[in-house]
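Mods, move this if it's the wrong board.
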Amino acid sequence: MRHGPLPLTFEDRTAHISNTDFDDMYDRLFFHVVRQPGRATTKIYQMSVRASRHRSTLPIPGEALIHLDFGADESLGTISFFKSPLHGSIPMSRYLKKTGFFASSLSRKFMGSDGREYKWGYRLVPGQEWTCTTMDNCSIVAHYDLKPPNVRIFDTSGNNLIIYEAFTDMIPEIIASFIIMRHIAQFNL
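Not the wrong board. Structure tokens:
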């Protein structure tokens, strides 16, 4: 029997870093990530309904929570916060720093709006593609799990971003930093 709160399990609908949806499997929270063709800005919106085949016909509600502005060559640009304790724009390279001078580009840390440092790492834990922990490694904050290759999934990617209940105030920042980490990996930055 499980004790304690359930983590938020966000289904990554497409697994694309610039156009996807993160929908909690228990219908608690929904996020839409979109980049318009020909643009260098990826926007993160909080939605009121789960993604569906027809959600693209619905208007996007208001202003995005976060803008990720990449360079025209897909280099790191700025991250801008609009509805968070972190307001304004920060260069991505300053927001999401390498964990050490000789550390891999896929091991980076960021300061959360709660004043704590968090770090992302690539394939640190068996079965997890990406893992986010507190800087002292005392708590796993989030992890991204790939669909097992032998499991058939219809209409989704089958990949999940798990965020633990103690860190729910950080969800938009976790999603934004995760997208930047995947961008870094995809474009070998």
